[in-house]
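Fold these two proteins, one after the other.
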Amino acid sequence: MGKICDAATAAAVIADGQAVASTGVLAWSTPDVVLRAIGERFDATGTPQGLTFYFPVATGDAMGIPGMEHIARKGLLRRIVSGTYINPRHPETGARPAMTELVQNDLVEAYTWPIGATMHWLREVARRGPGYLTKVGLGTFADPRHGGGKFTSLATDDLVQVVELAGEEYLFYPTWPLDVGIIRASSADEYGNLSFEDQPLTTCALAMALAVRASGGKVIAQVGRIVPRGSRVAHEVRVPGALVDHVVVAPGEPAGTDVHHDPGYLRVMPDMLDRLPRLPAGPKKVIARRVAAEVRPGEMSIFGFGASSDAVLVMAEDGLLDGDWLGGHEFTTEHGPFGGAVMPGWQFSPNYAPEGLLDGLSHFDFIDGGGCKFAALAFGQFDAAGNVNVTRFGSSNPGAGGFTDIAVNAERLVFAGTFTTGGLEVECTDGALTILREGRVNKFVSEVDAVTYRVRDGVCRGQTARLVTERAVFDATREGPTLVEVAPGIDVQRDVLDLIDFPVRVDGPALMNPACFRP
């Protein structure tokens, strides 16, 4: 029997109550056509029901590439485990993602794990190991003593445990079998051999296929085209056909949000700097410029999703990357690219004009092994105890992504974000900052809603950590945050200290570089 079939036939492989896993990083590498077929089958027939879905990373953008939105149906899902969730409202309709609605309304068992765990857990399933063991995440949202990654009250099972080994504590993620895996590649032959020549990421496709195979399950691959068997050299085939059961051909699918085919995401481009977009004026650009001042050439620098990822674009705009090979700067994200420029927003994850690429599991080996000395990450909340939160706050439940693994293993940390959120408006004129409208939500709170990383613990281990906002810069110390810089034009008491829910030390402070506030 041939492996090539349509999406509906592939979706019919899934039975009620099974555990299904899918690749995808935002809209990159998302098998959207197959996920859509699963949702359509459920809408038409009421089956499959009661599925457990495992997404190592949020899949789709809830817009042109819906991804996990296709299966966000009450009844179809019993449980979801994901490294991240899609949260922003649709820019045109204002609608929240359906998956967010399921979580916020407590209609599904929802869990979130650090992406380092979601990736490495697949390796343990593939080797039929008992589970994934790590120190990363102790004392954070992933620790069962602090929630165990549970996002809803229906999520009552403890999927993470604390164990002791040789007198030391670890987090333990027990394995369970995966019945179906859905992955995406560029090309397949009739036997199912997969290559990824026009995919900017390979993410965890091979690991997922191995895990599903070890579980006795079925692997579905969505590809853009069929090529003759034997037409590629062996090292181009990243997933052998022996691991693939069904191939769904879906030509013309976009590579990512607003990206159909751009060779700049696949290889070095001589005119890379001219191709990069420019950030509009505003608080994000101020923050990006101040973060850029912390980046050093010759030091592997990793950037997280959000405000921190804008820094590389302003470095390019301001002439800081001129010269051969970006002036000696080395940039990566948590998803495997080496070299090139980190991209902002929905284009985040692969780099533009990369020199090399690791799969998701190998890259977290690199991160956990201390390969990224400098890390710039976003923050949603920061509290008096020196805890930072990006996992869950207010009505948002984005999950931590790779934040915890990155933060634990870096030597220098910068956390970047606006000082307040929810309607903040500022103006930059004559090298100074004016607050036109203050944000409704304070981000410096007495206690964070969830602990993503304990910054004070890191400082006690020898890390340095700095918080960068559009109006103030803080150094994290054992005693708590210390205000060290303020923007020209800012009243320290009214615009900074009065908006923090706990006392902070004040050192100086010095003025932020007026160049940060250029139009």
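Now the second one:
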Amino acid sequence: MEDLLVSAESRRIRRIALGDVLYRSAAKFGARVAIVDGDDRLSYRELDDLSSQFAHYLLESHPGRVQVATLCANSADMLVAINGIHKAGHVWVPINIQLDPAQIGYILRHAEVSCIVVDEAICQQPRIAALLGEIALPVIIACTDGGNADRTTLATAALGRPTALPEVDIDSQQPALIMYTSGTTGNPKGAVHSHASVYSAILANLSTFAFTDEDVVSGILPLFHCGQHVVAATAFAAGSCLVVARGFSAPAVIATIARERVSVLVGLPMMYGAMLADPQASMAAFSSLRLCIYAMAPMPRSLVNRIAETMSANIMLVTGQTEIYPVTMSFRPVQHPQRDANYWGVSTATCETAIMDEDGELLAPGEIGEIVHRGPNVMLGYFKDPAATEVVQKFGWHHTGDLGMIDDGGQLLFLDRKKDMIKTGGENVASIKVESTILGHPAVAGAAVVGLAHPHWSEAICAFVVLKAGASCSEQELIAHCRASLGKFEVPKAVKFIDALPQTATGKIQKHILRSQYADCFAAEVR
């Protein structure tokens, strides 16, 4: 029996490989538009052909399995490169274009990258050009205006090469990508995902989102993040059309929804807020929208209601992590008006979720502990870091570092990051609960809440607030606003107004910087 399971031919028949997703969709939806990139359009057949040609180029220049990085903004070229890397059986290393050159250099070296695809505009930045010259990597230019006669571009790499899917022996459990975390307190870690782990997330998302070949899906968020990447991969599996954008602009997105008849919009809560606040919103054509997906932050009930009234009543929160490919859980706020904005809902078809205590015991509904997951969408581990992998996968579950509880209805409530839970006067306070309350004030654009050392309370709650342009608000007004809906021990002892919240290049708030800068805030007082 074992002899039937070891041949390359047998593996090819039943393999799970990410490059096969596009190849199979092209066979079904060849002439359908796969990508809209500004005025450019690529059909499924064209995208499949170009990515196969790039795969053949990679196999000629790097015949063994190697890491290939992309340093690109959203574009059709980037999607050609990603799918070509997968078809070649190489390992994709996406790099956030907002990182500084030192961080980019760290990832390129740590991931042992053999070549890199770079947008022409990014490659021309002096510090990036100097870095690439220092590391001496082969460079393929993407999104070029044709003025790179002396350098390899995606177009020249594809020229004259076969459009057939390369015959490559790909094992379903071999690495498909190394995606680096944001590294809020140190160097980022590279989460290694197999073809099977990403593919399992795609399958779960097909049932969660119900994408079809009639859908037109937005590509506003960056493709170098797991969230937008898996949305794009899910769209291609379904035969949907993906409309990519280089960045977010409320007027541009509103116009794109109407022009391309976008049916699925994927964005952050602040993006939805900006669109609905735009003067064009009142006259906008949102009738094509059937699903509005949001992620990364809780959405105030007032914004949920406005989206439901103006854009679509089918609204969905989705969650995930770099280490466990999205989507892990989904929540429909319109269907659960009695549950607050911090609910994450229920797991997808391929993800199992539980609440665990410090000793590895699973907890009953109503009990608070760490949110843990297991399923085929979990990473293989951190690249070259077995110790960190062992910690995050102890007790046979993936540990998220998030605290939560499952209510009697089976819905998961997110409480806080473990490291951000505030202990004040013997009480535990979830920083996100206080932040959600502050964000409900009409003058507030952003907020971060931390616990700072206090001579009496052990830790005291301090809120850091960014006001909307032109808005005004006092510390006492915000504290009074919090008192109206929070317990006495949950109300901030101080509010600091700042111009901007410190963030990583992926948009995560760096609370450790606030804790460090304001460590002595309460040193001389007792409240």
